[in-house]
Design goal:
The chain contains 18 helices and no strands. The protein is globular, with a radius of gyration of 22 Å. The protein is about 85% helix and about 0% strand. The chain is an all-alpha fold and about 450 residues long. Helix 3 runs antiparallel to helix 5 (about 85-120) and helix 5 (about 85-120) packs antiparallel against helix 7 (about 140-155).
Amino acid sequence: MPVDMSRHFTLPQLIRFTLPTICMMLFMSLYVMVDGFFVSNWCGQTALAAVNFAYPIPMILGTLGFMFGTGGSAIVAKTRGEGDDARANRQFSLLVYAAIVAGAAFAALGVLLLRPLLVALGAQGEMLDLCMVYAMPLVVGVPATVLQYLFQELLVTAGKPELGFGVTVAAGLTNIVVDAVLIALLDFGVVGAAIGTIAGEAVGGIIPLVYFARPNKSFLRLGRTNMDWRMLGHACVNGSSEMVSNIAMSLVSMAYNVQLLVYLGESGVAAYGVIMYVGMAFVAVFMGYVFGSSPLMSFQYGANNRIEMRSLFRKSLLFVSICGVAMFIATRVFARPLALVFVGYSEGLAELTVHAMLLYSASLLIVGFNMYGSALFTALGNGLVSAIISFVRTLIFEIGAVFLLPTLFGADGIWVSVVVAEAAALVLTTTCILVLEPRYGYIRTDADVSKRSGNSSDGHV
């Protein structure tokens, strides 16, 4: 049965509700890591560098799914909170159809621009050839990527987060099996990794599409709709922060790769790839939580329930605090074993990876707060503030740091750029949350004022 979003969630219940989405994001990061593991250990350092150098381009194209998913989910959840389920279904259907059309258009654009972009970024020779072989299948498969990202969010809004988890597990296992067969057994090299990734994304996108097209037990059903440009535009604007955030992460990766080629060569790009695999798994926990909890905040905002909004906000801050500390400790304890899993064939590359990972680890104490702050405003329908936080955090602070700090501290400046950028972004995120709180009431409600006056009590923590 779908989960009732109108009820009060204790912290264990909130974690249980978001756990399928967290696991879903973890599995997605896992099968990206699997690509890296097989490519590095069976194809070598240059192939690993090529995969990590090219991957941001199809990722940028696929971020359409995040935009339609997060922005549209807030609208659909709010409409359901207002009690208009029929309209919510029409909105849901329009979002899915629009995402398919837009994904196909972006795939065609990517095919035309892929090689010129790789050359402009500095890929050449064998590395350029490997980049093309790996990235072209992913670019062609962008519509599947878009659908997978779209349904990650909409399955939660439909009250079926466990189905989202199951689909992602199936997608991840598909990727792992295809990678193992094509790379380890049949020696397909990086093209095997690409086929494995797109096969997994196809599973993640098509299964939910078929599910929603048929009678189902969720809150949503794919069916007839009407063209609502205003709603679609609002979804795009509202979800633009998540799209900007994911595009920015890819652009940041490109900036790191460019700088690392200059300062450390292919070894630096390969080491950065390992750090991103590990970091992706940790960040997936935060991403899964904010994706999983955002529809609850949107629903309560639509229902004008400020007490539950405040409860969700406080529990979320506690969750990201605990996870950030745990991830920081885990990274410092397991840095070397993790490096050896990917690049144990080269002691020099392993040492470089461990050194960089220890410098990077401090960012895990901060990043969860920034991700939650941006997602909070998306859930509340304020896509502009969410987009500003995402844009400044990545495209200004992090890219600025990755180009400035190496001039002062050499290659180490590249590795600490993310820490400096996240710290600066935390100041911005906190300011936005405090300044805009009176408009939404997610920190203090009328009940809080009454409690301090001794007139009422609220049992929710």
